[in-house]
Amino acid sequence: MKFGGTSVATLDRIRRAAKRVGVEVAKGYDVIVIVSAMSGETNKLVGYVEETSPLFDAREYDAVVSSGENVTAGLMALTLQEMDVPARSWQGWQVPVRTTSAHASARIEEIPTDNIMAKFGEGMRVAVVAGFQGISPEGRITTLGRGGSDTTAVAFAAAFDAERCDIYTDVDGVYTTDPRICEKARKLDRIAFEEMLELASLGAKVLQTRSVELAMRYKVKLRVLSSFEEMDDAAGTLVCDEEDIMESKVVAGVAHSRDEAKMTLVSVADRPGIAAAIFTPLADAGVNVDMIVQNISEDGRTDMTFSCPTNQVARAQKAMNDAKESGSINFHEILADTAVCKISVVGIGMRSHTGVAAKMFKVLAQEGINIQVITTSEIKISVLVERKYMELAVQALHDAFDLDKAG
Amino acid sequence: MKFGGTSVATLDRIRRAAKRVGVEVAKGYDVIVIVSAMSGETNKLVGYVEETSPLFDAREYDAVVSSGENVTAGLMALTLQEMDVPARSWQGWQVPVRTTSAHASARIEEIPTDNIMAKFGEGMRVAVVAGFQGISPEGRITTLGRGGSDTTAVAFAAAFDAERCDIYTDVDGVYTTDPRICEKARKLDRIAFEEMLELASLGAKVLQTRSVELAMRYKVKLRVLSSFEEMDDAAGTLVCDEEDIMESKVVAGVAHSRDEAKMTLVSVADRPGIAAAIFTPLADAGVNVDMIVQNISEDGRTDMTFSCPTNQVARAQKAMNDAKESGSINFHEILADTAVCKISVVGIGMRSHTGVAAKMFKVLAQEGINIQVITTSEIKISVLVERKYMELAVQALHDAFDLDKAG
């Protein structure tokens, strides 16, 4: 059972979370609880570090920001003890959660189970583990990157061969789309790992992408639940293998992202190797290029359009202008349009169903929405459109693919 | 160099503290810095624990409250790095600071130096260590009790055979008496370990008693300095062996404590064993009896008076009434007077000088102050007087023993 920052934001909320743990213990389960820092704490600590040292030593960053989870772990253990549930806390180094040395974005390499299993053998019913942290081969504290507690939870579930991994958060599950912009959004009972991965990387903030990858690899039965509502066992959304999905929808959900900018290099010489000449310097500059489209060539010149996160526009412009100065590429001008958004439809059913893209384009055309860039994967189609059409596009696609109706 | 909570209360103050460390590094010293939590942090965490679980598991208490020091240690290391001083942080378990298992009041048993010395050998100039914490033989986090960072500092100075141990705090040294009630109070350049011990246990809040004991045992040259004033090397107060004291004062200081109550058992049967019959149940009830006086016996009965901390009066009354009911003692009534205070003069010179007590009593008599109870040690005389005379008594004694003049 993993409780995120908003689920442990106050002592009262920690008590509510502990009660949910108590219910599982009463059913006879031994439970590993993974906790985040009380909400706001990690941001406060990150603020301290960044103010102290803008180009901080990531090892010290990790030593500082990991402390919030330690506080919650101890308080959760005390709360459970008050409820007469035998519990104790573990910090990452005590388990130990062995990670790589990539401070601030370490990966879990090994979680020995002997320590905690020995305590379960002695009558302990709940091991409370500080999420988000581990220990490097050099014996220093590491953290897994923001949202890393989800990954901690899945990794423990895999290491201990847990019956399931329940992620308690401030939403009650995964939705067909964002309920704030489409009132017909419907909570999904189940979603396939692959779909969840696409949705997570498209900006759905329910689960950290890596935690989903890990759950998929180790076949961890992953459930997203709200810690703020009374729920029964069937509540929330189960993230699982596609074989376990009963619903037969072609499309599982519609995602959107405001954080996209469209860049166009106007009048580039269309010659072999031009794509490499453009995108290598962008990659070197740390620009995450998402979608790419190349216009039809005319008189040996073409326009090259790509999308990247809004906050990387300046970096992309600098990389392109530098490349132009060095003579490696040539273009007439570089245009940046930040008034765009990305709309995606995701569904494993696309693998076997043709016509999803055609239907998507037709729906958008009927609404008078012009598609600027298109990119597809095996189970996803994304388009870039003017940002003012975002709500309209999401709602129209949600209707068209019947997402408001259970499968 | 140890920096207390007020000396690292903000990022600005951490920077000021780091500058003092930088000065020592520039002189060629390798430095171990011991830090407390930012002031207010530990109290906040203790509050969380007590609200969660009034009779808390001390192991979880320690896991929670030790986190404040970890934050400061990382921030101090980052601040030093920003000043181009090679530094890194250590948490207690990383050194490791080995302690007993007495959670919340553990004692340091061993501090291996190899880890930190190896890093000094590699060019690191400052090891920043989280104070107040250690690790038990069972591998769990321990804390040393409030003010424990002083003890951490002295223990590191002893383990690493440091040239000296500088305690940076919010006062600029040890005074002949409390400057808030006697404007002639003078900062001492030097004070003997034994005197500092008496003053610390009499309520002077400059140093934790255990840190002074430890410094005395291991001959650590201990200095108390202000982190808020510009100081030169000779500043502050040096706590040292009495042989190193140049000043030849008989009395080093005058201490006072408001936190004293006087209890009197009226008309107790004066028989052998009566003292044991009274003070054994008080000890069993956890009452810290300080001073004791027994009146002259009349008709086989006497009055027995003792002092104890004000907040233990109710407990002492209950213990005495219970003992009376059980028949083990008999008295007419029990009186409690909380309008008293304790005034003490302390000085190693008393060992060789007679007449200090006589002079003290005479001074108080001249001011019309009645002495209610007296207790003495080899280097201390304490009296209980009415609380309204506290300032008067301190000022008169300070004058009489010429404490405003350097020795």
UniProtKB/TrEMBL annotation, chains A, B:
Enzyme type, top EC level: transferase
InterPro entries: AceGlu_kinase-like_sf, ACT-like_dom_sf, ACT_Aspartokinase, ACT_dom, AKii-LysC-BS, Asp/Glu/Uridylate_kinase, Asp_kin_monofn, Asp_kinase
Binding site for substrate: 42, 69
Record's GO cellular component terms: cytosol
Keywords: Amino-acid biosynthesis, ATP-binding, Kinase, Lysine biosynthesis, Nucleotide-binding, Transferase
Keyword NADP: no
Transmembrane residue ranges: none
MF (Gene Ontology): aspartate kinase activity; ATP binding
Pathway entry: Amino-acid biosynthesis; L-threonine biosynthesis; L-threonine from L-aspartate: step 1/5; Amino-acid biosynthesis; L-lysine biosynthesis via DAP pathway; (S)-tetrahydrodipicolinate from L-aspartate: step 1/4; Amino-acid biosynthesis; L-methionine biosynthesis via de novo pathway; L-homoserine from L-aspartate: step 1/3
Catalysis: reaction(s): L-aspartate + ATP = 4-phospho-L-aspartate + ADP
Annotated ACT domain residues: 263-348
Family: Belongs to the aspartokinase family.
Protein name, per record: Aspartokinase
Organism: Sagittula stellata (strain ATCC 700073 / DSM 11524 / E-37)
